[in-house]
Design brief:
By secondary structure, the chain is α/β, with parallel strands linked by helices. The chain has three domains: about 1-140 and about 270-330, FAD/NAD(P)-binding domain (3-Layer(bba) Sandwich); about 150-270, FAD/NAD(P)-binding domain; about 355-455, FAD/NAD-linked reductase, C-terminal dimerisation domain (Enolase-like, domain 1, 2-Layer Sandwich), CATH 3.30.390. The chain contains 14 helices and 21 strands. The strands form five sheets. Strands 1, 2, 3, 4, 5, 6 and 16 form a seven-stranded mixed β-sheet that branches. The chain has a five-stranded antiparallel β-sheet with strand order 17-18-21-20-19, with helices on both faces.
Length: about 475
């Protein structure tokens, strides 16, 4: 039986980072992954969807070319060609590197096979059983399918199938108005599909600031996306229409019901921990359908077994998974454990315009009994946004009333996923909002919106002409 200092189960962002970190520390490492290395984000999430978002954005801009004084002689977009671009982009990101992700160069062993526990230290990989002094679970998540009568029988797609479609569905129903659901909704709408989004909560993007979410809903509706909140899909049935298979979704909103016909149903109602076939019970690790239970140091209920990335059910982001993978590997081989610091975790949703946020929302701050002030600035008053041809957006800062510390930042607007970095640095370094107000920003630029919001806060020095809150 081969013995390793660390056995990693799962080859996504968390697992790869952990394996590489431990190998560089001189530890013997084995990593098992039954699919391609890179994980869900790489092959069915972040990477392909962002290529699809970009293709749809370009087509959207082409149709607006006349607003910029140009007459473009392009009358249609070929969805299949856009998906071919997506495939090329994914492969370019993947590169032509080694199939083992460079693990062998670091002295680590790569097992391209399914793994399952046979005991607290023993893991079966294919026909071989290996032993790990420390073990890391990094198996990620799978789509959570709601128990809607008729859904499974009638058929549906998830993000995995959506990134591989070659034909655009004429009508699409999206279940769930989180980041995944909305990104696909906008992509398919921009290519010409009729799209209806069904969200059981009161607002889209439930984790985001209410004001930001309301703006995004407005922008999406302006593009023709139908959004139903406080709504649930009560049942799904198949019907024959014009010789093609059509699905009927019965939607309930309060006491009212309506039927919506579509060719495809996209399920984006959350994620469950990917634990099927792992025989995790043999290891004695505590878990539920959503997550493997961990402490602040990423340790499970079994002291030598750790978990990192989406399987922990926390922040389902690639950058968080990578951070956790490294942290888990370091904690596994030290007596001085470091906790996961979730105070500063930037997140982004790549609808157009983008959404980005970090820290507490205004509501969360009030619920925690904190005394805060909010400071906002509209992209409608931002020169760079006006010149860009898209002045939709808002920056909103949640600031501690006592010392000016930034407790949260929320924005929607062009390039929001990049603009949020400045706020992350300030929060990580415990810099007050005046640090932004006192810092020179390039003109004309999108980060000036953050500067303008900061300048509306009290106790700052200097002022930028014309920078006022809306």
């Amino acid at each position: 039986m081969q013995k390793f200092d660390l056995v990693v189960i799962g080859g996504g962002s968390a697992g790869l980072k952990a394996a590489r970190t431990a190998a560089r520390m001189g530890r013997t490492v084995a990593l098992a992954e039954e699919r391609e290395l890179g994980g869900e984000c790489f092959w069915a999430g972040c990477v392909p969807t962002k290529a699809m978002v970009r293709a749809a954005q370009v087509w959207h801009l082409v149709r607006r070319a006349h607003e910029f004084g140009m007459q473009v002689d392009i009358c249609r977009a070929e969805f299949a060609d856009a998906m071919a671009y997506k495939a090329r982009a994914v492969r370019r990101v993947a590169g032509d590197g080694p199939e083992d992700g460079g693990l062998s160069k670091l002295g680590a062993s790569y097992f391209p096979a399914r793994a399952r526990f046979e005991g607290p230290h023993e893991v079966r990989i294919g026909q071989e059983v290996i032993r790990g002094q420390q073990i890391l679970l990094a198996t990620g998540t799978v789509p959570a399918v709601p128990p809607i009568p008729g859904l499974v029988e009638t058929g549906f797609i998830t993000n995995r199938e959506a990134v591989s479609l070659e034909t655009l569905p004429r009508r699409l129903v999206v279940l769930g108005a989180g980041p995944i659901g909305l990104e696909f909704a906008q992509v398919f709408r921009r290519f010409g599909a009729e799209v209806t989004v069904i969200e059981q909560g009161a607002q889209i993007l439930p984790r985001e600031d209410e004001e930001i979410a309301a703006l995004v809903a407005l922008f999406l509706r302006e593009e023709g996306i139908r959004i139903l909140t406080n709504a649930t899909a009560a049942s799904v049935s198949a019907i024959q229409s014009d010789g093609s298979k059509t699905r009927r979704v019965r939607v309930r909103q309060g006491n009212a019901t309506q039927d919506i016909e579509c060719e495809e149903i996209l399920v984006a109602t959350g994620r469950n921990a990917a634990l099927e076939g792992l025989q995790i019970e043999a290891a004695g690790v505590a878990f539920n359908a959503k997550r493997v239970e961990i402490d602040p140091y990423l340790r499970t209920s079994v002291p030598h077994i750790w978990a990192a990335g989406d399987v922990t059910g926390g922040y389902l982001f690639t950058h968080v998974a990578s951070y956790e993978g490294k942290l888990a590997a370091l904690n596994a081989f030290t007596d001085k454990l470091e906790p996961f610091d979730d105070r500063v975790v930037p997140r982004a949703t790549f609808v157009d315009p983008e959404v980005a946020s970090i820290g507490l929302t205004e509501r969360q701050a009030h619920e925690q009994g904190l005394r805060v002030r909010t400071h906002a600035f509209s992209f409608a008053d931002l020169d760079r946004a006006i010149l860009h041809g898209d002045a939709r957006g808002l920056v909103k800062l949640v600031v501690d009333e006592r010392d000016g510390q930034i407790l949260g930042a929320h924005l929607t607007g062009p390039d929001a996923s990049s603009v949020i970095a400045e706020l992350a640095i300030c929060m990580k370094s415990h810099l007050p909002v005046s640090a932004i107000a006192d810092t020179m920003h390039a003109y004309p630029s999108f980060p000036e919106a953050v500067e303008a919001a900061a300048l509306s806060a009290p106790n700052y020095r200097g002022q930028v002409e014309g920078a006022t809150s809306p």
